[in-house]
Amino acid sequence: MASIITATTTSGLTQQADNSGVLQLASGTGNLVTVPSVTGTAMVSGNMPAFSAQSSASTTITDSTFTKITYGTEDFDTNSNFASSTFTPTVAGYYQINANLRWGTAFNATQQAILIYKNGSVWNRGGGGGTSGLFGYLTVSTLVYCNGSTDYIEVYAFQNSGSSVTNDNSSWAKFSGCLVRAA
Question: Which residues contact 163 (CB under 8 A, 6 or more apart)?
Answer without folding.
Answer: 63, 107
